Amino acid sequence: MSREIPIGSAVRTEAIINRYFVRAKKNLGQNFLVDVDTIKGIVEAAGVQADDQVIEIGPGIGSLTEQLLLAGAKVFAYEVDENLPQILQNELPDQINGASLNERFKLLMKDILKADFKNDLAGFFDLNKPIKVVANLPYYITTPIIFFLNQAELNFASLTLMMQKEVAARLSAQPNSKEYGPLTIAVQTQMSVQDALTVSHNSFVPRPKVDSSVVVLTPLENKPDVGDVKHFNWVVKMCFAQRRKTLNNNLKNLIPDQTVREQLIDALGVDARVRPEQLTIAQFIQIARAIPVSE
Ligand code: SAM
Predict the structure, then answer these.
(1) 156 CB within 6 A, ligand 1
(2) Integer-rounded Cα radius of gyration of the chain
(3) Closest ligand 1 atom to the C-alpha of 81?
(4) What pLDDT score does 295 carry?
(5) Which of 38, 56, 64, 81 for a ligand 1 pocket mutation test, highest count of atoms within 8 Å of Cβ?
(6) Are residues 83 and 57 in the same domain?
(7) Are 63 and 129 in contact (CB under 8 A)?
(8) Residue 5 lies in a domain
(9) Mapping DSSP to helix (H, G, I), strand (E, B) and coil, where does residue 157 land?
(10) How far from chain centre, in Å, is Cα 45?
């Protein structure tokens, strides 16, 4: 089939699936996007411009990769499915604005959760310049990926991420809601959250059960001082370990001494029976500061 037709169109995707006998792997969260308008919408939401450096997580058969390249980005992709490199090499355009595919695209077969960005990207990206992440995330590890990116020491310009709608709602949640939790707090202490697109489940093959959202996360200029980010995220997770229980109960493992615990809760200026979802981000920062960082 002509390469003029975008990979993300239903006909081209079907042709690729048939040609390479692709079977979408559920255990790798493979739901391929087949909606060119949506794919272009993601590239637009990410504000991709000529020569932007973009990390893509899970290029699949290349539908989003192709549009990122056509928009002028240099793309470094992480993938784990060994069947995909050959498809990507064959199906992505050979030439993009006069440059060869290999100059503009690099694929690393590596679990994104094991990424060592500075070493992986060296030689392909200029690490002094900001980097964008753009991805249709594998849903089975959406939350670990967001935590991983959140804790990574890389100069991110933005993260434009497609995820299940329910997870996206957690990113912009406010206290006293069921969506508010460790993911919300990890993200909101580091980044601003902007909902960009809602994507129907009909835009994928195979079709997932639920709709998706595209969210743009941009690092805050003035981040609150949470201290050590990993420690902070860990303390928040411990506070929510049993979300129906009181904060006092959840803090027992972190602060075994009841008097010390009560003094901390008192210093937060809240009722002794407060539940974790009732606390503000500032109060979690206060809690994390009161607990020593473990080695
Ligand atoms: N970008 C393609 C698209 O939009 O059609 C595919 C998106 S699909 C939802 C998720 C992709 O992530 C798949 O290609 C899958 O193989 C890949 N993937 C799954 N687990 C991964 C991991 N741990 N690290 C990197 N990529 C992963």
Answers:
(1) no
(2) 21
(3) 16
(4) 62
(5) 81
(6) yes
(7) no
(8) no
(9) strand
(10) 15
- Across-strand partners of 204? 33
Domain end marker among 175, 193, 219: 219
Residues of the chain above pLDDT 90, percent = 94
Domain co-membership, 209 together with 275 = no
Domain that holds residue 137: 10-219
**For a pocket test of ligand 1, which of 14, 16, 28 has the largest count of ligand atoms closer than 8 A to its C-beta?**
28
Tell me if 59 is assigned to some domain.
yes
Residue 3 lies in a domain: no
Phi and psi at residue 278, to the nearest 5°: -90, -5
Residues 66 and 132 in one domain: yes
Q: What is the mean pLDDT of residues 170-189?
A: 97
Structure confidence by residue, pLDDT tens digits, 127-163:
999 999 999 999 999 999 999 999 998 999 999 999 9
Ligand 1 contacts CB of residue 204 (under 6 A)? no
Q: Tokens representing 22?
A: 């692709």
Nearest-atom number in ligand 1 for the CA of 33 is 5
Total residue length of the chain: 295
Q: What is the pTM of this model?
A: 0.95
Tokens of 192: 């601003």
Residue nearest to atom 6 of ligand 1 (CA): 60
Ligand 1 atom, smallest distance to 135 CA: 1
The total number of structural domains that make up the chain: 2
Query: 146 with 246, same domain?
Result: no
Q: What is the pLDDT of residues 239-281, one digit of tens each?
A: 999 999 999 999 998 999 999 999 999 999 998 899 999 999 9
